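Appendix B, example 12.
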Amino acid sequence: AARLFLVDEVEGIFFGSDFVTVTKSEDADWQMLKPVILGVIMEHFVSGKPVMLDTVDIGAAHTNDADGGPDAEIIGQIKELLDTRVRPAVAMDGGDIVYRGFQNGVVMLQMQGACQGCPSSTATLKLGIENMLRHYIPEVVEVRQRVGAILGDELYVVDQARVTDYLHHVR
């Protein structure tokens, strides 16, 4: 990941379990940037080095839900539907969706990767995901997008400032 940030036009990198999403600066041209990014990724695979310098194991800390709480069955159903019906479709667009909580009928979700900040993400949440969850789980009354914490159980977003500091120390 650190080497990708050495490309001037790269602003963000998102790693999913089987894909990488790269965010470029607004004025950068994908036609010029794509071969450089692919070259860096291929060099990395050949090197055998780890994808991340370190990881954070935050497990269930993303949610405010207790496993044995009164809503445990509902939360399990929500997570199952997200994992089997929503995440695969969102991943096809280079993004991910992460469960962040359930309280008083409101499901909190977070869009990540290419889906984060995408104008279509609100429509996806409201028209697609909310309608599906409400259909299968009557206790769900609304879905809201949560922004903020961006590390997921199996997903990592690399902070460019942190990588730059690391590179300065290594040199």
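The CA atoms of residues 157 and 165 lie 16 Å apart. The chain has a mean pLDDT of 75.
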